[in-house]
């Protein structure tokens, strides 16, 4: 069985394989369980294996590479046009096998386990922050039914709720005080877990020079630096800075036809978490640009005057993404604008 290209449809327990030889003739159609997959792939002669970039793809990619195979991950949206007739496991594996051989196909780099460690830490922190925000909103909403109003800032829960629970004149029953005290305990636990994640991210930041290199860019802090570098891996997988910015979904979406070029809102492709960090970092820079006289700040102020705050934030995030790519790809230090 001379398989040169293998399309593999990933799943939790059952995997569909579709293999062809160098002439494109089908030589393998097989359905394997999870326990059988690694052993079967290990026995195959080195070949090109294509998979969709979905859950567990990076794990299987690293494992198959250790067997000597060439592994390429494809965005599922780029596989869909190659699916013939109905969608099922067999048709999906056949489409992957066909798509992976396309000369202009774009691939997703396989993440090393260290990259996944950092990104998992970010995902855990992000979920904890969402849970804390939801809990704070619930506390504020429930208190409003007792005539107690807290403003939206999260620190008001930390400062005012303990005082309220100790205030004997507050119009709260003993029953209400008990469950609000439990909610406050849950809130403090989430606070501690978020701080624990942030301290671990800070330690990773201090141990890696690449994180520190791009943190010199205005609007890029510890969270942005660690998440970006861990997600990018090798910056040379992008042809230039614009390619990385497009990967982040920060470039305009085209609706062009004929000789008429039409650009609309940003594409919002890629990781929304990375894009959010860059845009929020850009907002912080814009808010402090009024008191500065360097060329970058002057450009920000002029753009804000013409386009408004939101478009300026996205434009600056786009610019920062390109600068970050240049720093990483060419191993240079950031030079402050004059």
Protein traits:
8 strands, 12% strand, two-stranded antiparallel ribbon, 338 residues, Nucleotidyltransferase, domain 5, 3 domains, alpha/beta
Mind explaining what this structure looks like?
With 338 residues, this protein is α/β, with parallel strands linked by helices. The chain folds into three domains: 5-108, Nucleotidyltransferase, domain 5 (2-Layer Sandwich); 113-207; 214-329, no CATH class. The chain is built from 13 helices and eight strands. The chain has helices at residues 34-43, 57-66, 76-79, 89-99, 113-144, 155-166, 174-207, 209-214, 222-232, 241-247, 272-287, 295-307, 309-329, and strands at residues 5-9, 14-20, 26-33, 48-52, 70-74, 107-108, 252-254, 263-266. It has a six-stranded mixed sheet. The chain has a two-stranded antiparallel sheet with strand order 7-8. The N and C termini lie far apart (64 Å).
Draw up the topology in text.
Layout: E1 5-9, E2 14-20, E3 26-33, H1 34-43, E4 48-52, H2 57-66, E5 70-74, H3 76-79, H4 89-99, E6 107-108, H5 113-144, H6 155-166, H7 174-207, H8 209-214, H9 222-232, H10 241-247, E7 252-254, E8 263-266, H11 272-287, H12 295-307, H13 309-329
Parallel strand pairs: 1-4, 4-5
Antiparallel strand pairs: 1-2, 2-3, 5-6, 7-8
